[in-house]
């Protein structure tokens, strides 16, 4: 029997080969990565908003 013909590929397109614990682990890891990315994006956006507010307040005080 040729072993090259019967290799199992573990990827997203072959998720039916994974058992439930593997699916849960991958889902948990991807959710964790997603939360980290969302956290970083929110931090950057809120930092930009905070700087914009500070610049606006400084502009108001210097033009009165």
Describe this structure in words.
- With 64 residues, the chain is mainly alpha-helical.
- Helices cover 67% and strands 0% of the residues.
- It has one helix at 20-62.
- The radius of gyration is 25 Å and the shape is rod-shaped.
- It starts with 19 loop residues before the first helix and ends with a helix.
Structural class: mainly alpha
N- and C-termini, Cα separation: 86 Å
Radius of gyration based on Cα positions: 25 Å
Shape: rod-shaped
Mean pLDDT: 82
The largest sheet, given as strand count, sense and whether it forms a barrel, is: none
Question: Hey, roughly how much beta strand do the residues contain?
Answer: under 5%
Uncertain stretches of 5 or more adjacent residues:
none
Question: Could you write a compact summary of the structure shown?
Answer:
By secondary structure, the chain is mainly α. It has one helix at 20-62.
């Amino acid at each position: 029997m040729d072993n090259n013909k019967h290799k199992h590929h573990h990827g997203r397109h072959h998720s039916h080969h994974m058992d439930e614990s593997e699916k849960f682990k991958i889902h948990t890891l991807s959710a964790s990565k997603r939360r980290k990315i969302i956290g970083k994006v929110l931090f950057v956006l809120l930092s930009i908003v905070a700087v914009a507010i500070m610049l606006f307040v400084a502009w108001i005080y210097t033009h009165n």
